[in-house]
């Protein structure tokens, strides 16, 4: 009997060990279960396994913000950025955000010229492994990004990608099991709904303010205004149109709120009373730079597409319709001699663009997108901004008094016309604008800086780009517009390889520090 019991025990032990070995082998080869999932899909898995302990009250019932604030505050972070004296927040020029609305997007300290510049803002943790959404203007061109969590930990962050066209950025810190804010659905947001703004105004960490949604789909004309180019979906004001539409990829469809938003709130969370993220706070309309009752947030449904692209590709893969249009109102309708006062009047079609291929014509009036009535440019902008090249979108237009339906297959960013302005300038003209002379690196210089190629700056002339952007004699230029530089002839070839009129120069200062400057040569 004892022998039989011992045999059974041995059998059970063997089965247990075998199962453990099998499980261990499985774990070795098991893939990361979140690999390939979007941020929203990851969150669904997380919240399916971590259900809230109590129910929150919706804005339709008794107003109680305590549970929403408690759920969101731990995942809103303070972001502090540092910029080199040469670079600055906007690459050496004035910040268009500050020019238009004042210095409220972040809090900048203006030290002496020779010292680094610093700025601050907010961010929202959206994944447990450390991905954080913030505004592009909070981290653009920053040489150092520090994140302080709600529990007072300071972490170094790397910028995964930025999208100036929506003023969004994705950064990442190293961590596990970090608190996150649940992604909501901005399409369900209603005007008059209670919302909370959570951020770090005036360096006051984890500040919560309440208000309502004042409006949706606001186009306030702040993104892309410095480029003076047209929106790929059309202009929001009637203007004299060029023969061929030029592309400004900015997308504005802000949620407007009267929740108090002040300097430092930029990049923080706009959430509903369920504690769900519905927007990223980005701007305020103010004469003083402080809160005056008008705040604007990027809707989260647009942000989802941008953030997923930034993580996967490092940039946003955006589809384009390829039209220039005018937003109709009674005055514009009279000027255009049309009886229709709502919709988007098609002024021009991009040659070879998606709209032209689908059969749209100049003079068509876009009245619906995916069956939804179009009243202003943002009604089209945001819908298209969520899609990729190759995706299809249904457009209804009014033509000769009758409605016609079209299915448009979006195309990628046009390349033929973007360099037109840049290519109109000769290599000689662009070379002279540099205001510098160069000489190939000697073997000793290559060995000193451990470089295989490059040219050294031997002279800097007054009024040129090199003087204006403080690139002194002795600096080493290793690349221009993405091309390696090893001789003056290489410079001649590279300087005409411009994109959107921008020249990008990379290299090393005489002390070995690396720099990258961008010049507008239009």
Explain what the structure shows:
With 522 residues, the protein is an alpha+beta fold. Among the domains are: 193-224 and 248-313, Beta Barrel (Thrombin, subunit H), CATH 2.40.10; 319-412, PDZ domain (Pdz3 Domain, Roll); 425-520, PDZ domain (Pdz3 Domain). It contains 14 helices and 25 strands. The strands form 4 sheets. A 6-stranded antiparallel β-barrel has the order 1-2-3-6-5-4. Strands 8-9-10-13-12-11 form a 6-stranded antiparallel barrel. A hairpin with a 2-residue loop joins strand 22 (476-480) and strand 23 (483-484). The longest helix is centred in the N-terminal third of the chain and has 28 residues, at 2-29. It is globular, with a radius of gyration of 27 Å. 40% of the residues are buried. The model is unreliable at 8-29, 57-61, 90-114, 225-248 and 415-424 (pLDDT under 50).
List keywords for this structure.
522 residues, alpha+beta, Thrombin, subunit H, Pdz3 Domain, six-stranded antiparallel barrel, six-stranded antiparallel beta barrel, 14 helices, 25 strands, 29% strand, repeat, PDZ
| Overall mean confidence score, pLDDT | 78
Task: Kindly report the CATH topology of one domain.
Answer: Thrombin, subunit H
| Secondary structure: number of strands | 25
Secondary structure class reads alpha+beta
**Overall body shape:** globular
Q: What spatial order of strands do you see in the largest sheet? A: 1-2-3-6-5-4
Radius of gyration: 27 Å
The span between the termini is 96 Å
Measured as a percent range, the helix fraction is 10-25%
- Looking at the overall shape, the CATH architecture of one domain is Beta Barrel
Indicate the low-confidence ranges by residue numbers: 8-29, 57-61, 90-114, 225-248, 415-424
Give the DSSP E fraction (strand runs of 2 or more residues).
25-35%
The description of the largest β-sheet is: 6 strands, antiparallel, barrel
């Amino acid at each position: 009997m004892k022998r039989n019991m011992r045999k059974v025990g041995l059998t059970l032990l063997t089965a247990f060990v075998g199962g453990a070995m099998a499980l261990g082998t499985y774990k070795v080869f098991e893939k990361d279960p979140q690999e390939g999932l979007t941020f929203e899909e990851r969150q669904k898995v997380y919240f399916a396994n971590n259900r809230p302990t109590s129910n929150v009250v919706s804005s339709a019932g008794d107003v109680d913000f305590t549970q929403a604030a408690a759920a969101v505050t731990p995942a809103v972070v303070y972001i502090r950025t540092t910029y080199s004296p040469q670079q600055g927040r906007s690459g050496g020029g004035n910040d268009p955000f500050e020019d238009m609305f004042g210095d409220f997007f972040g809090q900048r300290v203006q030290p002496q010229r020779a010292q680094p510049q610093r700025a601050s803002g907010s961010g929202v943790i959206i994944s447990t492994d450390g991905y954080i959404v913030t505004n592009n203007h909070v981290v653009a061109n920053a040489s150092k990004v520090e994140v302080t969590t709600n529990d007072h930990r300071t972490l170094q962050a790397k910028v995964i990608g930025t999208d100036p066209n929506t003023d969004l950025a994705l950064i990442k810190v190293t961590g596990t099991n970090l608190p996150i804010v649940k992604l909501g659905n901005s399409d369900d947001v209603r005007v008059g709904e209670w919302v909370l703004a959570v951020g770090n105004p005036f360096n006051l960490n984890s500040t919560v303010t309440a208000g309502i949604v004042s409006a949706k789909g606001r186009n306030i004309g702040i993104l892309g205004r410095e480029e003076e180019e047209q929106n790929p979906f059309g202009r929001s004001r009637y203007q004299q149109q060029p023969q061929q539409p030029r592309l400004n990829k900015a997308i504005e469809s802000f949620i407007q709120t009267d929740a108090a938003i002040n300097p430092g709130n930029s990049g923080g969370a706009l959430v509903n009373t369920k504690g769900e993220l519905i927007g990223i706070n980005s701007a305020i309309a103010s004469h003083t730079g402080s809160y005056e009752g008008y705040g604007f947030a990027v809707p989260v449904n647009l942000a989802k597409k941008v953030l997923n692209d930034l993580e996967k590709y490092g940039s946003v893969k955006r589809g384009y319709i390829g039209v220039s249009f005018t937003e109709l109102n009674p005055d514009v309708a009279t000027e255009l001699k049309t009886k229709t006062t709502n919709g988007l009047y098609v002024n021009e079609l991009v040659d070879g663009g998606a709209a032209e291929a689908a059969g749209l014509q100049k003079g068509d009036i876009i009245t619906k997108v995916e069956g939804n009535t179009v009243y202003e440019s943002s009604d089209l902008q945001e819908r298209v901004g969520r899609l990729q090249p190759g995706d299809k979108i249904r457009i209804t237009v009014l033509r000769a008094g009758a409605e016609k339906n079209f299915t448009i297959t979006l195309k990628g960013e046009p390349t033929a016309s973007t360099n037109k302005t840049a290519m109109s300038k000769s290599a000689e003209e662009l070379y002279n604008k540099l205001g510098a002379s160069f000489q190939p690196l000697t073997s000793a210089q290559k060995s000193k800086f451990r470089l295989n190629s490059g040219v050294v700056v031997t002279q800097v002339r007054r009024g040129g780009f090199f003087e204006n952007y403080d690139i002194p004699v002795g600096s080493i230029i290793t690349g221009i517009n993405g091309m390696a530089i090893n001789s003056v002839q290489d410079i001649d070839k590279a300087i005409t390889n411009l994109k959107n009129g921008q020249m990008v120069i990379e290299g090393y200062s005489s002390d070995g520090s690396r720099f990258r400057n961008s010049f507008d040569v239009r």
